[in-house]
Write a structure and sequence with these properties.
about 5% strand, mainly alpha, about 110 residues, 2 helices
Length: about 110
């Protein structure tokens, strides 16, 4: 095996470490544009589906609130306000997870 001084990848000057080079960024941006163009319709459909399911969940929560089944926004408690949501190991009261986080979504069975 070669010594460390003979391996080119190990002889990078310290002032070049961590510097973003233009060519990889250009390649990444061009790939991103190709991806966005190829999957634009699927991404738009996914957003619409998520919004639709979120509206359906909101309607269900409002109906449950009127019926007295849940209190609050429907995410933190059920029944008399003391029982945690079934199958929920997370306390999300006051939290706003990103839309991609499964714990914050209302449109899946897992959520």
């Amino acid at each position: 095996m070669e010594t460390a001084s003979e391996v080119g990848a190990l002889r990078v000057p310290f002032d070049k470490i961590g510097i973003v080079k233009e060519a990889p960024v250009v390649r990444w941006l061009s790939g991103l544009q190709m991806y966005d163009k190829k999957y634009y319709r699927q991404a738009r459909k996914a957003v619409k589906t998520r919004q639709h399911n979120d509206r359906k969940a909101q309607i269900l929560i409002e109906k449950a609130q009127k019926a007295g089944i849940i209190q609050g926004d429907g995410w933190d408690t059920i029944n008399d306000g003391e029982l945690p949501r079934p199958n929920d190991m997370l306390d999300l009261a006051g939290e706003h997870p990103p839309p991609s986080a499964i714990c914050g979504r209302r449109d899946t069975v897992s959520a």
